[in-house]
User: Fold this.
Amino acid sequence: MRIMKGVLFVFVVLVAIWALITGINSFSPYMFLIVAAMMLYSGLFALKLKRKKNAAIYFIATAIALSASIYIFFT
Assistant:
């Protein structure tokens, strides 16, 4: 699970750096979706380790990232 979390983190960072360098902002909703997936995965991992408080925080962050992605995508 840690490998998948690391791969998602590296992917998000690389896409963010690429978007900053090229000036393309159309990837914002997709980056938020990837961040939401990363937070959801981290929440499931924390839930598996019986860290319910951390899992709840990750799930709340997932909901915020998903709502921001949907808002950006439809505006």
